[in-house]
Amino acid sequence: MTNNPGASLPQKILISPALTPTKISGRQVHFLFSIRQVEDILKETPVYPVPFSPPHVEGIAKWRNHALPVISLEKRLGLDIRSPDAEFQKSTRLIAVRALDPGEKYIMLRVSDAIRMFSLPISYTPAPSVGWLSEDSLVKGVYEWDEGYLLVLQLKTEEVREVGSGK
Amino acid sequence: MKELLLFQVGNRQFGLDLPLVRSIHGASAFFEKQVNDGDSRVPMVRFQFEDMPLYDLSAILGEDLCRQEMKMGSSATSQTQPPSYDPENKKVMLVSVQGSLVALKVDRIERVVSVTSDQIEAISPVFKGTALDWFPRVLKQEKQLILLLNPDGIRWDAAKKSEADALSDEFRELENALTRMMREEEMAKFVLHVSSKILEKMVARRIGKVEKTLRKRLAEEEGTHDK
Fold first, then answer.
1. DSSP conformation letters of A23-88
2. What ipTM does this complex have?
3. B74 — contact with chain A (CB < 8 Å)?
4. Closest CA–CA distance from residue A150 to any residue of chain B (Å)
5. B124, A53: Cβ pair inside 8 Å?
6. Chain B residue with minimum CA distance to A90
7. pLDDT of chain A along its 167 residues, tens only?
8. Prediction pTM value
9. Is B148 part of the contact surface with chain A (CB cutoff 8 Å)?
């Protein structure tokens, strides 16, 4: 018996294919989020651009009476991004993610609508070479799994804001 | 309660603390007068015998917002066609910034709203630089978010840019003068010589610091052994 019934539940993760047309060695890049990180998945939420913001920051969006920054992970990591057309917003979602900052802080990430939930464990191995990805403090780990590459991110405000070399 | 003045630039609404606004005029009441001081990149206007910088927000923000909307397809602000404003109807707000006046040209003055402090939120630190200088706060309304302009940030940002431009101008002048005085090869040698001298000094300074720290540690350790 355990005092914490939730402890026996399998941990769940969300995996979203990156919005990049580029495949690395013919394999798709994905982002991995723990289900605890993700507070909400929103469809067609208005984003208000902020003048003079860096290319990877789309703007701000309203979520639970807060104005959260909306980030493009692909642009932040220097990956190509599908050219935005009229369908772009419809085929994407915004996810409100808890940032790893002191205090409760959130950011919004634009992800593919093909975001899926998995129960752990899933089969993955550390990627042997990540030369295609510039060294970046935002990336905590790169793994290979059945469907391509998995990027695990360190979502801190400081890391999200900074654009590393080669971007 | 706090009063904000809402205004329009392109198809976007922005806000400004009402107490900062001294007066609002038709844009045609102003004539631009270029002056030859250090900040000549910003046109100056004369109004009632006073010269002040004029920031044409329709041009400055309009261009940037267009670029931003293009980069992300459609957005909250581009659901409808941007309204076309008659240039004759544009307005200039005279805004007080640390005791001096700044003129801000906008497409339209909307209205004054009274808001509570919990409706205003500081913008995320994910934003930085000019974005944060110009728009450090946002007004949360039921149906939309409105960026609040910080005129002080505009002045500060302009001063920073002007300083950076002046510095690069100085370097360019120095480079031109050196190019006139020396051949390319000689100049390369000269730059290398000066750089190596500077590097030497920096390294010597660092080594000096390390040496000092080591000596201090050794002295401390010796003192401990003596006891």
1. -BTTBEEEEEEETTTEEEEEES---B--TT--TTEEEEEEETTEEEEEE-HHHHTT---PPP-TTT
2. 0.82
3. yes
4. 24
5. no
6. B74
7. 334 444 455 689 999 999 988 787 788 999 999 998 999 999 989 999 999 998 899 999 999 999 999 999 998 888 888 776 767 777 899 999 998 877 768 999 999 999 999 998 888 888 877 777 766 778 888 898 989 899 998 888 777 877 643 33
8. 0.74
9. no
